[in-house]
Amino acid sequence: ANCMDKEMTHTILEAHGIQMAKWLRVDNEKMQDFDAFAKQAEQKLGYPMFVKPANAGSSVGVGKAHDRAELKSACLHALQEDYKAVVEECIEMQEVETAVLGNSNPQAAGVVGELVPVVEFYTYEAKYIDGTTALHIPGRVDEEISTFLCARATMRSSSTKSTPSRALPPSACTRSCGHTAGFPIRSCWTA
Question: Cα torsion at 7, 13, 16, 18 (round to 10°)?
């Protein structure tokens, strides 16, 4: 349930030292002095950045901002969906995912899929309406990485005896650009 709230997800991940996109919270109070908030966002996140309602899914209310005017518009739009929103840096990269089924003995699908939106980011329309997103199953990743991500996705503890030599931000699995950073966070590491 914690991952249903993007602000809560970010807070928990930060507390556990899990690498993710840089972010800020915005709400109607912060919008009262938008220029101050925008300056903080520009300094911490840089453009482009994404604005997401904290408690919406499927990219509902998500916007991508390339400048201050778009940031203001995206914040106002996101705040129509929820009383708070998160603003995240944009991380451009390959988007991969794997399904995990089960609770006491979780099993990964065994293959990593890859989503390639033809629009600028994976919007609600691209997900459910216009059919323009390309889906590659298996994803175009090395078999070793696919196997590792599937295994990592089913780990029941975030603590491991070995430290991965390279960490992928959550967006490698769920694409920070347009998705909740929390699912499936456990698969966002490569060796």
Answer: -150
Are 85 and 27 a contacting pair, CB within 8 Å?
A: yes
Q: Which tokens hold the place of 9?
A: 């997800």
Q: Residue 102 pLDDT more than 90?
A: no
Q: Strands, DSSP E only, in 124-167? A: 134-136, 166-167
Stronger pLDDT, 156 or 17, i.e. the higher one: 17
Q: Which residue has the tokens 């005017």?
A: 69
Does residue 128 contact residue 58 with C-beta atoms inside 8 Å? yes
pLDDT-derived band at 133, boundaries 50, 70, 90: confident
Cα dist from 57 to 124, 178, 191, whole Å: 9, 9, 30
Q: What is the mean pLDDT of residues 97-101?
A: 89
